[in-house]
Design a protein that fits this description.
This protein has 214 residues and is mainly α. The chain contains eleven helices and no strands. The relative contact order is 0.11. Helices cover 84% and strands 0% of the residues. The protein has one domain.
């Protein structure tokens, strides 16, 4: 899953670094905080649109990015409240956290396990066999789902607190750092749990060995 981790980290950096850099650049040219926040949020939306045009594919997260940008535009036109725009990322974290935790009770598999099956194409049957055979395997993915869900909600709460207590110009950079920090922390927790549990390694290695034998 190392390649998937690097890809996710690269996307996270691009989607955070570009808006943050754009915000401070626009502020340097005396743009108002509201319009700097709105315009600096365009690059992630452009990335999503490019993916739709070039690959004829758009993911659920990408659609949410565009949706939040649209909400941000409506917020700008209706209220002109920069602090309300600062918490747009917290809306996503809150939704993601609630969705992760709800998946523990709805459906057979938690969201983190479903994501793993998507990221490991061709190995779904091995994963499902491990899920059915090993309680520790099920426990690991449920623990990860709770960790990511709670982490997303804590991140959302901290983002809202920063948005409404700190100077507006300090928040974009600090919030980006907070997002990267939470992502890395949760990734470390994920890798430690999966390595300790060990079953995922047994699932991945047979497929790699089979590929090497061809």
């Amino acid at each position: 899953m190392a390649n998937e981790f690097r890809s996710a980290l690269a996307t996270l950096i691009v989607d955070l670094a570009t808006p943050v850099g754009g915000y401070y650049l626009l502020r340097a040219f005396d743009a108002s905080p509201v319009w700097a926040l709105l315009l600096s949020g365009l690059p992630p939306a452009v990335r999503v649109l490019y993916g739709l045009i070039a690959h004829r594919r758009v993911d659920g997260i990408g659609l949410l990015v565009v949706a939040f940008l649209a909400v941000g535009l409506a917020t700008t036109l209706l209220t002109g409240d920069a602090r309300l725009m600062l918490v747009r990322g917290a809306w996503f974290s809150t939704l993601a956290g609630g969705w992760l935790l709800a998946s523990m009770a709805i459906g057979k598999y938690p969201i983190t396990y479903q994501a793993a099956r998507t990221l490991l194409p061709g190995r779904g049957s091995r994963l499902d066999a491990a899920w059915d055979a090993h309680p520790s395997f099920r426990r690991a993915w449920r623990t990860l789902t709770v960790a990511w869900g709670v982490g997303s909600l804590v991140h959302s709460g901290l983002s809202v607190a920063m948005a409404y207590t700190l100077p507006v110009d300090e928040v974009p950079g600090l919030d980006a750092g907070l997002s990267v920090g939470f992502f890395l922390l949760l990734q470390v927790i994920t890798q430690v749990l999966l390595i300790r549990e060990g079953t995922l390694r047994q699932v991945v290695r047979p497929a790699a060995a089979a590929a090497g034998g061809r």
